[in-house]
Write a structure and sequence with these properties.
Elements: E1 2-6, H1 10-22, E2 27-31, E3 43-46, H2 48-57, H3 59-67, E4 70-72, E5 75-79, E6 82-86, E7 91-95, H4 96-109, E8 113-115, E9 132-135, H5 142-146, H6 148-151, E10 153-167, E11 174-181, E12 184-192, E13 198-204, H7 206-211, H8 219-229, H9 231-234, E14 239-240, E15 253-260, E16 264-265, E17 268-270, H10 285-300, H11 307-337, H12 347-355, H13 363-369, H14 371-384, E18 401-403, E19 406-408, E20 412-414, H15 429-440, E21 445-447, E22 451-452, H16 469-485, E23 489-495, E24 522-523, E25 537-538, H17 541-561, E26 565-570, H18 575-580, H19 595-612, E27 619-624, H20 636-648, E28 653-657, H21 675-685, E29 689-691, H22 698-706, E30 712-715, H23 717-721, H24 725-732, H25 745-765
Parallel strand pairs: 1-2, 1-9, 2-8, 5-11, 9-17, 20-21, 20-30, 21-23, 22-23, 23-26, 24-25, 26-27, 27-28, 28-29, 29-30
Antiparallel strand pairs: 3-7, 4-7, 5-6, 10-13, 10-14, 10-15, 11-12, 12-13, 16-17, 18-19
Length: 767
């Protein structure tokens, strides 16, 4: 094949090398607009896995590259006058210019035609003599932009400003240096790539950038100011730019997150940054480009595989890897964009939050890397929780947590989960076993399912209620068992179904209306949940009074039943949620329109409940922090204001869920996918939060807590199938301080021993 690679960066060069290695008869030309020695980056960071991939693909160039790597193990964080250093991270890097030179030489050895100072026409008609055209011309790809309608290009411009600089200081650790200027915080990402030079990326918000005058400075003045700001980290070394051809402000960039729906159009194929980008804070752009090149060359040369299927496999496999890294990169990017949320943290927690920001490094992963440093984090966390660690500091999930006069023994929560197993709203033997088992399983706090305040406030005929004397007695039986046989605290969640009521049991058809025996529905407005559900009646003021009083009556029944805590369910499209979300609330009175108006009735209900509930006992509110429909619904920013409003009325905890408010919503799922909402609410509104949503590992819980993303961690599905999840987690982490019901002590001890032996055996057998 005759192939033109448009762009002579790592992607284009390595693809040409990979093709020639598989079939020397390919005629390949690489066209680059710049001169051979020009480059506008500094250092490139690699992972061990990438090095292995390069060695398997081309041992010759891989050996040369590996022989020139700079190595370092530590990450150093400088903030508020303190320096924190964590080890065991194992970085390797090389100068971008040197990498390009190695790849250029290897390409020439293999017979690739390299053409520098060649402007490439983005019109495919100019490349008729070639069988394939590879767009390896980077994030600003002219080829991709010329045919953007075919590629389905999605470009997101991130708000922070950054500039690539270099310095002769060779940092011996990957360094994050945060400095407070008169205009706000500004920070550097610095790492060496050879024995004599380091990359030095300066980043800040646009407000700080303008406040410092960078938008008006030439490059020399901007660099001089950066040298003054970071003088204590540079040890007298200068900062230099390799983009001196740009006017001062133009050297500062906004990161462009690029994602393409399609990676090929006819004979034009996207490669590397032309198809996708990953934020520099996780250092994976070059890795993705090189691995793209390997895969594309492999499928194009596989016998019996036609081009269409080859390109489909190329995109299918590589897009999965890209999305994984882009998800991590998004987490990392957003951490730096919302830095103000974390600057009030004590330095040790700030550093932990920084290290775990992408979710690629977890709590136990840090223990493997640097157990001493992680021990310091855990000791700090326990001390901050008001407890004194013993000989071995326990994991964060077992630290106590206090709300008003109630102290939880640990931070793990059995999330409220509908069981649809009540008769006439009355909990029975199933509920006694269900809640009793989970309380004995070690969790610090157990929630009831949404318990409804009236017969017509139920979601289904199987929902529990708190509106009749028999309900109080039935719940009292369960509460007494929990208190007598565990150390768990028990929270009553109260709610009203609104437009989502009168439906079948969950396993008979979620949100599907009953075949018969339906009851009338009320909501903020006459907006049905779906076209299959009944249209609710907009609530009158009289009905609002009735519902408010029903919540108060249920709250008082909760006191009588002996619950330790009560939660108001104002999420998931149920009655109170229907007032909060503009998707359901279409009212034109004082209860509709602005967020303040939409919150008016839910706050009124909560205020009345708080007055009825004992002052020494805590209360929480469950909210949907986003409607998953963009700006037309509740946004994460509005969720902060919602949390603040309930906090002012006496809420001690915000139970941060998301969505389920609109049938057409498009949630973005993944591990801990709702935790970022808890993080923002906790650290912007400065309120206690509980994280929930696809949290299922001990690592998840410990990471969330230690990083300050939530104060409690709720697990739903894991507790459905494993009531003893918390006791099992204690055994897994060799923590013996958890309370175990005496009849189960022998089993817990054996489980802990067996898991410890298994871990020790695995460590011995590990290569």
């Amino acid at each position: 094949m005759r192939i033109a690679c448009l762009g002579g960066g790592p992607a284009g060069l390595y693809f040409a090398i990979s093709m020639k290695l598989r079939d020397p008869s390919h005629e390949i030309a690489v066209f680059e607009r710049n001169r051979a020695g020009d480059t506008f980056g500094w250092g490139v960071v690699f992972s061990d896995q990438t090095v292995e991939n390069l060695a398997a693909n081309d041992p010759v160039s891989a050996a040369i590259i590996a022989g020139e790597f700079a190595h370092w193990d530590d990450i150093e964080v400088h903030v508020r006058g303190e320096t924190l250093r964590s080890s065991g991270h194992g970085f390797i890097g090389i100068g971008r210019k040197r990498l390009l030179h190695i790849l250029q030489q290897r390409a020439l050895e293999l017979g690739v035609d390299l053409r520098f100072e060649h402007e490439c026409d983005p019109d495919l008609d100019s490349w008729q003599d070639y069988d394939l055209v590879i767009a390896s011309d980077g994030a600003n790809s002219r080829m991709r932009d010329r045919y953007s309608e075919h590629f389905g290009v999605d470009i997101q411009i991130r708000p922070n400003k950054f500039v690539w600089l270099g310095t002769a200081k060779a940092f011996d650790a990957f360094t994050f240096a945060f400095e407070k200027s008169e205009a706000g915080w500004i920070w550097a990402h610095a790492y060496k790539f050879d024995e004599d030079f380091s990359t030095f990326i300066v980043e800040c918000s646009e407000g700080t950038w303008r406040g410092l005058g960078f938008d008006r400075m030439g490059q020399d003045d901007a660099i001089a100011l950066c040298e003054r700001i970071f003088a204590s980290h540079l040890d007298g070394n200068a900062l230099v730019s390799n983009a001196t051809h740009l006017a001062g402000p133009a050297a500062w960039l906004n990161f462009r997150r690029i994602l393409c729906e399609h990676w090929s159009h006819g004979k034009l194929i996207l490669l590397g940054d032309a198809a996708h980008t990953a934020h520099f804070s996780i250092g994976s752009g070059t890795k993705l480009a090189l691995e793209d090149a390997i895969k594309l060359a492999e499928v194009l040369n596989r016998p019996g595989l036609d081009r269409g299927r080859a390109l489909a496999e190329y995109q299918a496999e590589r897009s999965v890897e890209v999305l994984k890294l882009q998800n991590s990169a998004r987490n990392s990017t957003e951490w730096f964009e919302t830095l103000d949320l974390y600057l009030e943290f004590e330095p040790v927690q700030f550093a932990y939050s920084l290290l775990t920001r992408s979710q690629r490094i977890s709590h136990e992963n840090l223990r493997l890397r640097d157990p001493l440093w992680l021990g310091e984090v855990e000791s700090w966390f326990w001390t901050k929780s008001g407890a004194d660690p013993l000989v071995r500091t326990p994991p964060p999930m077992f630290a106590p947590f206090r709300m008003r006069e109630m102290t939880l023994e640990n931070r793990i929560v059995v999330s409220p989960m509908a069981t649809y197993s009540a008769e006439g709203g009355t909990p029975g033997d199933f509920h006694l076993v269900h809640y009793g088992a989970r309380a004995q399983g070690g969790a610090g706090l157990v929630f009831t399912e949404m318990t409804c305040v009236s017969p017509t406030g139920r979601i289904t005929p199987g929902c529990t209620g708190m509106y009749a004397a028999g309900h109080v007695a039935a719940w009292r039986r369960i509460v007494d068992f929990v208190h007598a046989n565990s150390r768990a605290r028990f929270c009553l969640q109260l709610g009203h179904s609104g437009a989502k009521g009168s439906t079948r049991l969950g396993w008979e058809g979620m949100d599907e209306p009953l075949d018969h025996g339906n009851w009338p529905l009320i909501a903020a407005s006459d907006v049905p949940w779906s076209e299959n559900n009944a249209r609710p009646r907009p609530m009158t003021r009289v009905e609002m009074d009735e519902v408010r009083d029903q919540f108060v009556a249920a709250t008082l029944m909760g006191v009588e039943a002996g619950f330790d805590m009560v939660e108001l369910h104002a999420a998931h499209g149920y009655l109170l949620s229907s007032f909060i979300t503009p998707l359901q609330n279409k009212r034109d009175d004082e209860y509709g329109g602005s967020l303040e108006n939409r919150l008016r009735f839910p706050l009124e209900v909560f205020r009345a409940m708080r007055a009825a509930w004992p002052a020494e006992r805590p209360m929480s509110v469950r909210i949907s922090a986003t409607d998953w429909v963009g700006d037309s619904g509740v946004t994460p920013g509005e969720a902060v204001r919602i949390a603040e409003a309930f906090s002012r009325e006496g809420a001690d905890l915000i139970d941060v869920s998301a969505g389920q408010t609109w049938a057409e919503a498009r949630p973005v799922y993944g591990r801990m996918f709702q935790t970022p909402f808890s993080d923002r609410i906790r650290n912007e509104a400065r309120v206690s939060t509980m994280a929930v949503g696809n949290i299922f590992e001990t690592d998840h819980a410990n990471s969330i807590l230690a990083a300050g993303r939530a104060d409690l961690v709720a697990l739903a599905r894991p507790h459905l199938i494993d009531p003893m999840w918390t006791l099992r987690a204690a055994a897994l982490q060799d923590y013996r301080g958890v309370h175990v019901p005496p009849p189960y002590l022998a089993g817990q001890e054996q489980l802990a021993r067996n898991l410890k032996r298994a871990a020790e055996s695995a460590a011995i057998l590990k290569p």
